[in-house]
Amino acid sequence: MRYDLVIFDNDGVLVDSEPISNRLLAAYLTELGHPTTYEDSIRDYMGSAMHRIHDLVLERAGERLPDDFDDVFHARVFAAFERELKPVAGVENVLEKLTADGVPFCVASSGSHDRIRVGHRTTGLDRWFDDGRVFSSQDVGRGKPAPDLFLYAAERMGVAPQRCVVVEDSPLGVQAAVAAGMDVYGFTAMTPADRLADATRLFASMGELADLLV
Fold it and tell me: Treating both helix axes as pointing N-terminal to C-terminal, what angle do 38-45 and 18-31 enclose, rounded to 10 degrees?
């Protein structure tokens, strides 16, 4: 194994949540008078922390989102997760292989701890990630594309940044990993390869990832 720690993004990498959350985000923003398509949401918000949504809407429309925006959005997302959410195809095989090989791994997500936990519990991935291996943008001052979250996860796991690899599916996440001085493998299942061009390697399925990590 060429790395001492594998850091997984969560949404779109471990759990297949991006189609659900971006569909609901586009609908909610449109409902509030900020017309947004599903494609707009994927392009502008995928992989970002909630504060980025607030910042972009304020920048573009000159209006602040409602104070209860986060609570309402998360309630809708969590309800949909309970009905629809599944693990990303093949990711459990990757986690099994890493465990068998004794390779440490963790998750570092722009999502809140509650969002991560709801998704893992719903899909059964919680058995792979105890509290000591779950890191959220809530834990640091700045979310992706800043490197803070990945550096924090590496520090907490006791591994030097240059010995880590990040698995990401968003341009913001790739930027954050590069800024942290880590290798990053870009997952192109939902994101065009050219938007992840700064990644160390690109892969289109979890079956490919297992081979890349050897």
Answer: 110
